[in-house]
UniProtKB/TrEMBL annotation:
InterPro entries: Homeodomain-like_sf, HTH_RpiR, RpiR-like, RpiR-like_SIS, SIS_dom, SIS_dom_sf, WH-like_DNA-bd_sf. Residues 3-79 form the HTH rpiR-type domain. Residues 124-260 form the SIS domain. This is Transcriptional regulator, RpiR family.
């Protein structure tokens, strides 16, 4: 596993040239600005050439500047606060926000489609279907994603539990063990209790599936399977369009695996919904 950018710089710093040290110090001190700069823009900011910036990246054992920039993004998304996100968004301008937000969502979905493999997706579906009980851990803003997944898995499989974690987190997840599946959902800035919950569940013998933004997520080391969905934001609010689309696909796949059973469940529920007038009708 590659070192973090900070550790990478620390290990190479004493052997760097003066211009490379200048770049390193700027990245560490002004990561919130550097993350948005191209190699050329970073060079212009520091008064060095674009080639020098690229050589700096290679000296740190990255394949090029794009890979270094990805490492910088991984560092930033774990440190940057909502206030800093808002400040950066305001620096980028407030014009045409609907277009920017929707374009970011579209890009996140497209990148997620490219990155999620059929093999990984099928393994996740198999884990869900084979589980004795399913525990869904999704806290803070990710609660909405977890509730959506729980609603439909409980409808289809009737073995899903949503962990709320309001003062009773470990009491709720404690029963998860061999034969059970814990699904953790968290995106930057990752919720500490979600990470701890997955670690606890795995040590307890449960299977663990993470739905997060990358394989470098702190959820990954404690998971048997990881599904990634992009969540890049343009301001202080995370974009959950791609994660929700991925979860929607999981639900559809689970329902399609035994379509006859799914149809029977839906017929039964339609009768209940109609009898108790759950939905509005003219």
């Amino acid at each position: 596993m590659k070192h973090s950018l900070v550790k990478n710089i620390q290990e190479h710093y004493h052997g760097m040239s003066a211009s490379h040290k200048k770049i390193a110090e700027y990245l560490l001190d002004h990561y919130d600005k550097a993350v948005f700069l191209t190699a050329k823009e970073l060079g212009q900011t520091l008064g060095v050439s674009e080639a020098t910036v690229i050589r700096f990246a290679v000296a740190l054992n990255y394949k090029g500047y794009p890979e270094l920039q990805q490492a910088l993004q991984d560092m930033v998304k774990n440190k940057i606060t909502t206030v800093e996100r808002l400040r950066l968004a305001l620096l980028d301008g407030q014009t045409n926000l609907p277009h920017k937000a929707l374009s970011t969502d579209i890009s996140n979905i497209q990148l997620t489609m490219e990155e999620v493999t059929s093999a990984d997706f099928e393994k996740a579906v198999n884990e869900i279907i084979q589980a004795r009980n399913i525990y869904i851990v999704s806290l803070r803003s990710a609660t909405a994603l977890g509730y959506f997944l729980h609603f439909y898995l409980q409808l289809l499989l009737q073995n899903s539990r949503l962990i709320h974690g309001v003062g009773t987190f470990f009491e709720e997840i404690r029963p998860a063990g061999p034969g059970d599946l814990v699904i953790g959902i968290s995106f930057p800035r990752y919720t500490r209790q979600t990470v701890e919950g997955l670690k606890y569940a795995r040590e307890n013998g449960a299977r663990v599936l993470a739905i997060t933004d990358s394989l470098t997520s702190p959820l990954a080391p404690y998971s048997h399977h990881v599904l990634t969905a992009r969540s890049q934001q343009i301001s202080f609010i995370d974009s959950f369009a791609a994660p929700l689309s991925l979860i929607n696909a999981l639900i559809l796949a689970v329902g399609a695996r035994d379509s006859a059973k799914t149809a029977d469940v839906l017929r039964q529920m339609e009768a209940v919904w109609e009898s108790y007038r759950v939905y509005h009708s003219e």
